[in-house]
What does this fold into?
Amino acid sequence: MGPVVTIFSIVCAVIAWLRSRDRAGDPRSWRHRVKAMGWGLLLLPIAWIVMWLFGVNPATVGLLLLSGAVLIMAPVVAADLATVMLILLGLYGLAAAFAVFKHARQTARVVMAVPVRAARGARIFVPKGAVVSGAGKVTAAPHPARITSPPTAVAVPRPPKSTSFQQIHPPKTVSLHQVFAPAFSTGIRPGPWYAALTGTGPQGYVPVLLAAFLFLAFGLWLVPRTLGARGALIGRLSSRVQRLSETRTDAVDTAAAELRRVERDLHDGAQARLVALGMSLRAAERMFDTSPKAALALVGEAREMSSRALTELRDLVRGIHPPVLADRGLGDAVRALALETPVNTTLDIDLPGRLAEPVESAAYFAVAEVLANAAKHAQARTVEIHMRHTGDVLRIAVTDDGIGGADPAKGSGLRGVERRLGTFDGILAVNSPPGGPTIVVIEVPCALLSLKTSSC
Amino acid sequence: MRVVVAEDLFLLRDGLVRLLEAHGFEITEAVGTGPDLLRALLTHRPDVAIVDVRLPPSFTDEGLQAALAARRRVPGLPVLVLSQYVEQLYARELLADQAGGVGYLLKDRVFNDDQFVEALRAVAGGGTVMDPEVVSKLLVRRAREEPVTRLSPREREVLALMAEGRSNSAIAQRLFVTEKAVSKHSTSIFAKLDLAPSDDDNRRVLAVLAYLNA
It folds into this structure.
């Protein structure tokens, strides 16, 4: 049985090795393959040690089969399985050690060696529950038993009154050969579940206990690294998925609302003006011959209208994507913004390059909203803007000396900013006690796209 | 008067060229990209250049950058910058060298060709012309502050027109008053804002803009 199991496990490892390819189907590097197999391979030595400790029985053979299968199917799951297995084995070992200890003590308490001087083949009476030790073999129990080779002693649970006894000693030590022998042995050991451990004498529980502790310790050490890590990962992933679906809904809603606003503005503004413009021009055309003066006035009106249409389009575009932002990026766009607010602004901007356009835009409108709030609601007189990009995080702090009391939950403006930033995993923190000052901090994780190349 | 025109949209460029030719300007070169503009400005040294802020290849503020670069090499090279938008920031950058010969107007100002040509001639003559929108934004920003609040409404009107780069006679015409009245207002404004009075039109404009931009 042992060789079959060993060969099977080696075959499993080889198949796992061959199967370990990355998602694109390319064969992985050595390191990747070993890593992929690592945890699965751990199951094999466990199975061997189990076979040594508990004999080659159906449970251990099943463990080997399972470990092989897991190794082939999913090395990642094997890590969890190995952890659980180690803990279960540890508990099993503890129980076994306890059983062996109890057995040994019970035996030791009563075990007195009965010197047997019977010849080979002689029949002796062996008391019920007695343990034959030494090289002695007893073919059939209970009584009378035939002695196939002369035992040194027969231990009995309760000493017969008339017999003289002698202490059995000493416990055998475990040899390396014994450790690996079961893996290659063909026999299946009989006896109780801890039978394989009893042969080592009264102190036979010691290596079992040590192994059990080792298994338990290793298993518990692995828990946070395998099961715990997976649990934490699943927790993180599910909260991430939830956040992503929330922010995606927000982003889609915001984009749709924005498009609706643009459509409405165009419809009511520039489009309507162009219609009126066309009508004025047509009227002027008709009047051209009859009353050139009135026609001239109409043409002048038309020109005025086209001017107004342009103004409206300009304002609309400014609300969608400000030209300075497109031209120069966030730093200068905020500088331009500061120039146009009625509040005195102090700027401390250090952006060594451009950011991704959507991030720039979101950050710009966030600052614009905060500045507008400072001027409109907080009645601030001075505002300080600090803007830095460090360690792939854009950090903007806007401080004003206004009356405070800003609350993102109340106004729709800051809430909208928060939503828009959320799409980029950005955050908006508002600290605004009544009476001021208001400090708004915006943080957006983002990479710098390019270093500045322009001369300014 | 020799003019270099930089505008990437063919229709607009063509329109500008025709308008300028109709007013007796000589078009030295009409270009469509930033690098071409810089080259044209430095080789032709025109009397005035009309520059669109946004130009290819990058479609950012390439025209403005080229104009600023040319002015760094040829100080005071007259440039009238046209744009779909006026930005305080760009106005500031254009005015920074205090050399005059700068204009910054919205593209729709071309509709009124007389005023546009007048502005162009003013820039060519070393004057400073700012779009009313720039000036009104500057005034809005300063409106709540101390010295500006002391100005009378009429004085504020005069201040705005001065900042746009108009001469006393132009202001007088616009406000339907005499030139004398305008110069009285202007003296009063300079006194209230604590600025050194100057007879030179351009220096006066620069002083007012510098004050508003501060």
Observations:
- Chain A touches chain B at residues 303, 306-307, 310-311, 314, 317-318, 323-324, 326-328, 332, 335-336, 339-342, 454-456 (CB under 8 Å).
- DSSP finds 13 helices and 13 strands in chain A.
- Residues 241-320 of chain A form one domain.
